[in-house]
Amino acid sequence: MGFKRLLASLGAGGASVETVLGEENVVPGGVVQGEVRIQGGSVSQSIEGLNVGLQARVEVEGHDDSEYHQNIEFTKVSLGGAFELQAGALHVVPFGLEIPWETPVTMIDGQSLRGMHIGVTTELAIARAVDSGDLDPINVHPLPAQKAILDAFIQLGFRFKGADMERGHIRGTRQRLPFYQEIEFYPPSQYRGLNEVELSFVADESAMDVVLEMDKKSGLFTEGSDSYRCFQVGLHDFHGTDWAAYLHQWLSEVGSKRSWF
């Protein structure tokens, strides 16, 4: 029996873990509901702890300007204390995991953003072993205020180029997470001197910082350059602004001052 128990702690004949999400579609500031199902193996086992969290796969810039990806767990909740899991027994633990307001969006208008990997992680601590389950993806949809800004870009004729999550901080914002998202757009032909626009949201429970960075095309005798802007939008009082007109005015002013277009 002692030999079986040792094998169980290392994964042979031991408990299996399955996380079931009640709803995969969430928004920042919301809650993802689910339950962890722990199925006992061929022997009883001492469960020392159970945690669920949220994990993102982000880009990290190395010291030599190289880039690599890193999994960052940016929230974590403990689900109860230690207990003894009997052989063959099923132990079900429900949970509600809050989605931080800064969580990047992974879905826009029902379409997945390529390269966005965010999901629920499950960690079961068994005596002498830790079993980390697979990542259960979630779909993070934009808040209404975020959607208003995104819709404004589409209304102006911008097209999605891509998105990524980068480790680091955006200066002058309310950012608390150790990473941020950039959503990239191709400009329409009317902004002929512009290469792309990068958009970032940094939200909390009342407002969000909207960060825009314009990238100018390189010319025959000139190098490309960036222009940066950050402004605040209330999560509940954004309806009174024509965001397409606001963005067009700023783009036009910056472009004309720099003779971009």
Automatic annotation (TrEMBL):
<protein>
    <submittedName>
        <fullName>Sporulation protein</fullName>
    </submittedName>
</protein>
<dbReference type="InterPro" id="IPR009776">
    <property type="entry name" value="Spore_0_M"/>
</dbReference>
<dbReference type="Pfam" id="PF07070">
    <property type="entry name" value="Spo0M"/>
</dbReference>
